Amino acid sequence: LELTLYQSQRQHILNMADALLVCEEDKTLAALQRQFVEAPDASNMADCLRISPWQADDVRAVLRANQVAWVVAQAERVGIPKMISMNLDDSIGEKHKATRHLEPVDFHHDHNDSTKSKPRYKNGFCSLVCTLKSGQLVVTVDLRLYLRAKTVRRINRHRAAGQRIPFRSKNTLARQILEALRPLLPKGWAIYVQFDSWYASAKLINYIRRQGWHVTCGLKCNRKLNGVRVDHLASALRHRRYTRVRITATDGNTTPYYVRTTTGRLSEVPDDVRVWFSKRHPRGKSSAYFLSTELTRSAQQALQGYGGRWSCEVENFYLKTRLGLADFRVRCYEAVDRYMVVVQLAWGYVERRFIQERCAQVKCYGDIIRRHQEEHARDWLIGALQMALETGAIEPVLQRFLRETV
To answer: pLDDT tens digit string along 135-188?
Structure first.
């Protein structure tokens, strides 16, 4: 990546990224340090995150540009159609309910577990991820930390004027991510931006359309099309026949959906849009609503493309369960932001290896992580055997490679 870092900073970041993939327990800095035969004190990693003079945004910008350039080059090499979809989604990283002194941690509304009558809240942090997909090539191009307005006020209350953090809503963060990606995208390619109904604001849709891109997103039932609520419009069109659409998932399974289509003007959006009312069964009571700004796109194309947002779910799953995104113990916001960049760096390595080595034996990202761990175990065993042959004794080997026996 040719990062402008001091050698010590680079080494600490590489050590943390490598240990995140190898460590099987909670990814505390002490646990990461224990993965190395010869490693500095764990406090050095903490200092690299807390007080070392490097900026997370600088590393994030270099990684973003490198990821986009790499996936475009790979797509051109294998002859994939010139189409890119950028997928946005947020996720909550859960912490213990008693955690209070980590600056980014606060209670967040969990819209996945909430119902109309029972809202659910989780203590943790919220992150916004953006993946870029071209054909079967998927890479993560951004990972940002979101703070509630209440959290920002709590943090800024104890900071000097020049060190305060500005509040940015999720839609503002999404727009900043797209603005950072805009100069990196290739000319002449079809660009689609996809997100769920929580990001489908008129401001964000209009911004995307001004760039010449298209939007495919979910809609809430209370949005108005031609002045009529979408759910009321769906009820008024119940006499129309359904179009059966079969969507293929990443595992090859197909699921039928029953769709009705209409076209109109969304409130505060100047251009016509196409809206689909979708059900899992013709007699189902609940509907899902989807929008596309490209009027020539069929329901099959739009919904199949919208399925590309699953890459965000996959990434969030691996980041939290295998790479320890939610395992940080550093307190200040800037240190957590740097930790997230290190996690993104490690995940980018996994994504690229998966694209390059995908085969019958490597079917998912977990296989790449397992292969990386096996390579380290092999190197560790070779080093121990070589030392045993050189010294002719077992005790020095145990003291060097099994420090807990000392």
So the answer is: 999 999 999 999 999 999 999 998 999 899 999 999 999 999 999 999 999 999
Cβ atoms of 121 and 108 closer than 8 Å:
yes
Helix (H) or strand (E) holding 23: none
pLDDT in tens, 255-314: 999 999 999 999 999 999 999 999 989 888 888 999 999 999 999 999 999 988 889 999
CA 168, 169, 170, 172: dihedral to nearest 10 degrees? -70
Do the domain assignments include residue 294?
Answer: yes
> Is 133:68 a contact under the CB 8 Å cutoff?
no
Among 69, 40, 55, CA closest to 348: 69
The string of pLDDT tens digits covering residues 8-18 is: 889 899 999 99
8, 14 contact by CB (below 8 A): no
Dihedral over Cα of 398, 399, 401, 403: its sign? positive
Write out the two tokens for 128.
């916004």
For residues 324 and 343, the answer to whether their CB atoms sit within 8 Å is yes
Characterize the bridge pairing of strands 272-279 and 254-265: antiparallel
Domain range for 401: 368-405
Asked whether residue 83 is assigned to any structural domain, the reply reads yes
CA distance 72 to 112: 34
Q: What are phi and psi of 142, to 5 degrees?
A: -160, 150
In a domain, 316, yes or no: yes
250 and 314 inside one domain: yes
**Shortest CA distance to 213 belongs to which of 299, 271, 276, 127?**
271
- Do 135 and 166 belong to one domain? yes
Other residues' Cβ atoms within 10 Å of the Cβ of residue 280: 12
pTM of the model: 0.91
Q: How many CB atoms lie within 10 A of CB 192?
A: 23
To 10 degrees, what angle do helices 310-321 and 365-391 make?
30
Cα 34 to Cα 26, 258, 343, 376, 401: the distances in Å are 12, 54, 18, 13, 11
Q: Which of 357, 387, 366, 341 is nearest to 16 (CA)?
A: 341
Shared domain for 107 and 209, answered yes or no, is: yes
Inter-residue contact 349 to 17 (CB < 8 Å): yes
